[in-house]
C-alpha cells in the first residue's frame, strides 16, 4: 500500500491531500488548505514548510506528488509560486520521501481526461473518483488531483524503473 501526499503549492493557499492506494483501490485519508495569511513573504514560506512537515509527521506518507510550477505572464508571480513550491517540498525532507512532479496539464489529463479542464471539472472528478460529497475547495481538490495522478501513474512508473539500467558513476 502507498500513502501519497499531493501538494498544490501557492504562496497564500497551499492545497494538500492524502490518498491511500491499495492496488486499484483509492481512498482519501485527509485533505485541506494551508493558509499563510497576509504576512511578509518569507514568513509565508516558513508557514508552508512548517505545516507541510507537520502533515508528513502526522500522516506518514510514503511518497509525495507536487504540481510543477508553470510559467505565468507575470514573472514575479512565477517566482513566488516557485518559492512556495520549494518551501512545501522542503517540508517533506525530514523523512527522505521520494518526490514526484506533475505538470498542471498532466494532472487535468489524468483526472478529467482533458488537459484544458476547468477547476470545476477537476473538483467534480476528484469528488467522483474518491466518493466524496461535492464542495471541495479548489486548492484542496487540486492537491487531491495531484495525488490521484501519481497513484494512477505509479504502476507504469514502477515498470519503467525496473526496465532502466542503474546509473553507474563515471571515474576520470
Written overview of the protein:
- The chain has 172 residues and is an alpha/beta fold.
- The protein contains 5 helices and 5 strands; from the N terminus they run E-E-E-H-E-H-E-H-H-H.
- It has a 5-stranded mixed β-sheet.
- Helix 1 runs parallel beside helix 2 and helix 3 (104-111) crosses helix 5.
- The longest helix is centred in the C-terminal third of the chain and has 26 residues, at 138-163.
- The relative contact order is 0.20.
- The model has no long low-confidence stretch (mean pLDDT 89).
Secondary-structure blueprint:
Layout: E1 2-8, E2 13-22, E3 25-35, H1 41-59, E4 63-67, H2 75-90, E5 99-102, H3 104-111, H4 119-129, H5 138-163
Parallel strand pairs: 1-4, 4-5
Antiparallel strand pairs: 1-2, 2-3
List keywords for this structure.
22% strand, alpha/beta, five-stranded mixed beta sheet, single chain, 5 helices, 172 residues
In short, what is this structure?
Helix content is 47%, strand content 22%. With 172 residues, the protein is of the alpha/beta class. Helix 1 (41-59) runs parallel beside helix 2 (75-90), helix 3 (104-111) crosses helix 5 (138-163) and helix 4 (119-129) crosses helix 5.
Amino acid at each position: 500500500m502507498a500513502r501519497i501526499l499531493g501538494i498544490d503549492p501557492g504562496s497564500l493557499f497551499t492545497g494538500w491531500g492524502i490518498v491511500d492506494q491499495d492496488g486499484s483501490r483509492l481512498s482519501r485519508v485527509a485533505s485541506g488548505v494551508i493558509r499563510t495569511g497576509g504576512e511578509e513573504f518569507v514568513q509565508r514560506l516558513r508557514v508552508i514548510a512548517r505545516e507541510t512537515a507537520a502533515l508528513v509527521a502526522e500522516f506518514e506518507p510514503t511518497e509525495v506528488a507536487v504540481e510543477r510550477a508553470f510559467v505565468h505572464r507575470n514573472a514575479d508571480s512565477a517566482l513566488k509560486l516557485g518559492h512556495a513550491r520549494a518551501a512545501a517540498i522542503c517540508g517533506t525532507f525530514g523523512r527522505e520521501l521520494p518526490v514526484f512532479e506533475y505538470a498542471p496539464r498532466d494532472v487535468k489529463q489524468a483526472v478529467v481526461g482533458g488537459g484544458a479542464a476547468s477547476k470545476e471539472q477537476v473538483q467534480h472528478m476528484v469528488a467522483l473518483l474518491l466518493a466524496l460529497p461535492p464542495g471541495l475547495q479548489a486548492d484542496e481538490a487540486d492537491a487531491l488531483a495531484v495525488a490521484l495522478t501519481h497513484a494512477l501513474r505509479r504502476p507504469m512508473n514502477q515498470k519503467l524503473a525496473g526496465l532502466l539500467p542503474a546509473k553507474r558513476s563515471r571515474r576520470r
